[in-house]
Amino acid sequence: KIYSGFVRAPDPNTALALETFVPGFRLPPLASHLFDPDKTPLFNASEIPNEVWQQIVRNLSIGTSGTGKRRRKGRISYAQLGIQQLGAVYEALLSYTGFYATADLYEVCRSEKKAAAEVEPDVADADSDSDTDSDGDTDHASGKEGDLFETGYFVTADELAEYKEAEIVAKDGRRVCHPKGTFIYRMAGRDREKSASYYTPESLVKCLVKYALKELLEGKKADELLETTVCEPAMGSAAFLNEAADQLADAYLQRKQRETGKEIPLDEYTYEKQRVKMYLAAKGVFGVDLNPVAVELAEVSLWLGAIHRDAPVPWFGMQLVCGNSLVGARRAVYASELLRPAVQGAPSWKDGPPETLKSCKRRKGTVYHFLLPSESMAEYGDKTVKSLLPDEVKRVKEWRKHFCKPFTEGEINRLESLSEAVDGLWSACAEEQARLREEMADSLPVFGRPAHRKAAATSRHKDLRYAQEILS
Rounded CA gap, 303 and 320, in Å? Predict the structure, then answer.
């Protein structure tokens, strides 16, 4: 009902009763990816009994605060839920991982004398019960069954002999075993550390965005601010993007009021600001993240951060993407003369970083840096690797020496031709995406800048066009 909206219940009597208790009740459709049934086929096929739904609603509606005798229950107010809280949820989600056991797995834990440091922390069975002491804290060191909210460590039966009895998790005197095929879901502490998934505090976000925008916005007119584009190469839950849209919206309204001589009534300012934020979020905000969960949450947080009563559901299909921002294929070049065999002491492309292009045009006689080899490729300096694979490391070293030799004139001409081909593909891709984004953009009027009215396309329609015209 959320995706399609509420128009009329299947049973007329039910609809009449609903209208009786809630006069004029209607639910406008929220056709976003979050509520699209086509995006949740497994959930749609699940038959969840009302008893389970009751537990879900209860757990989402009522929380506890305090500790010990001061613990008390109370209702959770979602009206007060902000984007920063959503970021904290994102941080917590990335702390957990789920997988199916490919063999019988035994759970181990840290003892007081020795931590099971050699075991990769992963996740644990969601069906097991947890034993806690009187304060609600789990005692891992004593070998009791692991807390579902703590990091899980798992080993196979063959590896179990390497652990002391105090390091093996037990319940009712029996070792906890997760049979092959069991779905295991637990905190993945080291996975989180390796992915650098940590949430930035709100105060730091505000400060960084403020000073990042300060010089950029100086001397610009209000309408120029609306054309500002912001890209976050590791966006997480889009905390920085939300804050950038918020500060840009305030700056636009302040300057537009001065330029037009019109003041926004105080009780309407929040609404007008939300409209500007929606405009910026839908047209000027871009983000990339390696974690697909982050992309989903960024889409939701940007929408929640800019939502208002007259806003269409924004579509971020060409703005928020899952990918690796560190592959290194940026717009930077080396001059062709640096690729030729040099006399003693002459500069080479290997001596320094490439020149970053300040515009989208590459000048003649230059080659993109990602087409060239580097002396740091496949460089294994670790002593352990060298001791384990001495012949292979030596072979790679010889290969790298040959691979990084200066280029012949024919090879340089080929590299310049490839760079021209890259320019053509890059331009064609950018123009095609810009055209499609413009055609699918919603009509978003803001204070002091009306927009032409046009029918808004659904997210499904935009997904289809994007798949056919870009991804194909």
Answer: 12
Per-residue model confidence as pLDDT tens digits over 75-108: 887 777 776 676 677 667 766 778 899 999 998 8
Radius of gyration of the chain (CA): 29
Tokens of 78: 């979602």
92: Cα separation from own chain's centroid: 13
Tell me if residue 121 falls in helix, strand or coil: strand
How confident is the model over 213-245, as pLDDT tens digits? 998 899 999 999 999 999 999 888 888 999 999
**CA-to-CA separations, 407 to 122, 130, 421, 469, in angstroms, rounded:** 48, 64, 19, 39
Cα–Cα distance, 281 to 246 (Å, whole number): 10
**Amino acid 197: pLDDT:** 52
Contacts of residue 167, defined as CB under 8 A and 6 or more positions apart, other chains included, come to: 108, 109, 110, 111, 114, 116, 143
Helices marked H in 404-458? 409-440
Are 26 and 32 spatial neighbours (Cβ–Cβ below 8 Å)? Answer: no
Give the pairing of strands 332-335 and 366-368: antiparallel
Pair of tokens at residue 269: 């300012």
